[in-house]
Amino acid sequence: HMSIVGPRPERTHYVRLFEESVYRYGDRHRVKSGITGWSQVSGLRGKTSLADRVEWDNYYIENWSLWLDFKILLLT
After folding, report:
1. What protein family is recorded (predicted)?
2. Which residue among 25, 54, 55, 57 is least crowded, i.e. fewest CB within 10 A of its CB?
3. Residues of the chain with confidence (pLDDT) below 70
């Protein structure tokens, strides 16, 4: 199951690798994955730093609010 807003999902075979090599990667799985997210609307998509995306995803999780979700939807 996915949410509309949340960290973008990753292909399953990469999850274990990233959990071992990227600081706080596993923390982003505290919430459901989403179709759009804070890191995507902030320009972190495609060939960008995974560590930067993880940092923005964790910011979203730690600062979640209906207003932030609404803002992300408006920016999508």
Report:
1. Belongs to the bacterial sugar transferase family.
2. 55
3. none
